[in-house]
């Protein structure tokens, strides 16, 4: 059993632009366009914005991608950002975190580790900072987690016997699922989980702004700040307006002048 204090985020997918098809569109519509960014998501957000007004001429095309996207942020034209999409794997987070995360629906997709199919006998736990900073609280918390694991293993064993006795004709797969979905009821919110996430740029901005706010839950704020740092490298022209600030307790939070875009 490991005690986890920091989340981990992996960017496992991002967009590749089909330049040939963009050029075919430009040729067939008798317009020209060049951009100075090589980042697929930034290209797609720019061209989708230009489609709205067919602003592809030389005069309209003089802005850099950064200037163009910043103008979209200033004007609140956030729908354009929905065309940029990324895929993530988030690990080292608690079930408390994912209960909060999946409330974000528009622009999001989720696939989470299932406690019905996965045996959690060797699971890890996420310890809140406020508990880990106090030795007495930490020891009480750790004792609780260790006790729960032992109780969970005991439940698995007893439930397995009961299911075999009550439902002898069930397949082994269904028996395991029935046992684990019942035993999971005693697992705490601190249980570590893994979740595959897909989100567009607008949805990510909303998440970072809302969950990175100084008053947000500490664990989800950690994820929001880490997500921002990754996205500022991944697509700086879309996420560059955000600033990371220090809270009174020394933790990090997020601010921007372009809210609700």
Describe this structure in words.
With 261 residues, the chain is of the alpha+beta class. Among the domains are: 68 residues, no CATH class; 71 residues, no CATH class. It contains 10 helices and 8 strands. The chain has a 4-stranded antiparallel β-sheet with strand order 2-3-6-4. A hairpin with a 5-residue loop joins strand 7 and strand 8. Helix 2 packs across helix 3 and helix 8 crosses helix 9.
Please give a quick description of this structure.
It contains ten helices and eight strands. It is α+β, with helices and mostly antiparallel strands and 261 residues long. Among the domains are: 15-82, no CATH class; 116-186, no CATH class.
Total helical segments:
10
Number of strands: 8
Percent helix, as a range, is: 40-55%
Biggest β-sheet description = 4 strands, antiparallel
Query: What distance separates the N and C termini?
Result: 42 Å
Q: How much of the residues is beta strand, in percent?
A: 15-25%
Identify the overall geometry. Answer: elongated
Radius of gyration: 24 Å
What are the segments in which pLDDT stays under 50 over at least 5 consecutive residues?
Answer: none
pLDDT averaged over residues: 95
Give the strand order, joined by hyphens, for the main sheet. Answer: 2-3-6-4
Question: Pairing-aware structural class of the strands and helices?
Answer: alpha+beta
Could you outline the blueprint of secondary structure elements for this entry?
Layout: E1 3-4, E2 8-13, H1 19-28, H2 40-53, H3 65-75, E3 85-94, H4 95-101, E4 108-112, E5 125-126, H5 129-132, H6 135-166, H7 172-183, E6 192-200, H8 201-211, H9 218-234, H10 236-239, E7 243-246, E8 252-255
């Amino acid at each position: 059993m490991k005690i986890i204090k920091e989340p981990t985020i992996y960017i496992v997918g991002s967009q590749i632009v089909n330049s040939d098809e963009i050029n075919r569109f430009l040729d067939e519509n008798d317009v020209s366009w060049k951009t100075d960014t090589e980042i697929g998501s930034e290209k797609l957000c720019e061209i989708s914005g230009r489609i709205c007004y067919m602003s592809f001429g030389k005069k309209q095309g003089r802005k850099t991608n950064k200037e163009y996207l910043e103008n979209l942020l200033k004007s609140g034209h956030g729908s354009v950002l929905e065309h940029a999409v990324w895929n993530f794997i988030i690990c080292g987070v608690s079930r408390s975190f994912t209960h909060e995360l999946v409330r974000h629906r528009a622009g999001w997709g989720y696939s989470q580790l299932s406690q019905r199919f996965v045996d959690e006998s060797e699971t890890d736990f996420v310890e809140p900072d406020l508990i880990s900073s106090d030795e007495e609280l930490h020891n009480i918390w750790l004792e609780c987690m260790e006790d729960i694991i032992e109780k969970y293993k005991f439940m698995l064993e007893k439930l397995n016997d009961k299911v075999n006795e009550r439902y002898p004709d069930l397949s082994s797969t269904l028996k395991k699922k029935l046992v684990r979905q019942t035993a999971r009821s005693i697992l705490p919110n601190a249980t570590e989980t893994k979740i595959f996430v897909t989100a567009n740029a607008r949805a990510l901005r909303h998440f970072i702004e809302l969950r990175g706010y100084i008053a947000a839950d500490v664990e989800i704020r950690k994820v929001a700040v880490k997500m921002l740092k990754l996205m500022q490298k991944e697509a700086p022209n879309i996420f560059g307006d955000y600033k990371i600030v220090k809270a009174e307790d020394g933790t990090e939070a997020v601010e921007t002048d372009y809210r609700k875009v």
